[in-house]
Amino acid sequence: MRIVKLSASALAVSLALTAAVPAIAQTATAPAAVVVVPDGYTITEFTTITPEQMTGATIYDTEGNEVGKITNLVIGPDNAVTGMVTDVSTFVGVEKHEVDLKPEHIHVYRNAAGDLRAVAVVTREELKEMPVHTER
């Protein structure tokens, strides 16, 4: 970080120029989700988890509430998991709402016994607005 001392007039000019920039040019980024690591668990690389371990896993939100269960995996052409079909019906209050969660939507943790805990870093509203999974 560089600190620059400005005179009062230079500061006034700088502020005036900043205010003159159209608002459309400014972008805001959403704050990152805060995930509290479950007691006794450590973060695990998604690529180290087998499809058998992921299928049937329970997904939680960042507050520890159960979101749903992974019912199936979406496998890409390179045999990598590109999505997890997750039934979030009860969590979002909509009948039969299965969505494709992407690996970037999930943080996975493992404890010493090898048990997994998956945490979705998307909100209830985002899950509700995701399109329903359709077979491909």
TrEMBL record:
SUPFAM superfamilies xref list: PRC-barrel domain
Keywords: Signal
Origin superkingdom: Bacteria
Presence of keyword Signal: yes
Alphabetized InterPro entries for the sequence: PRC_barrel-like_sf (IPR011033)
UniProt-recorded name of the protein: Uncharacterized protein
Residues spanning the signal sequence: 1-25
Organism, as annotated: Falsigemmobacter faecalis
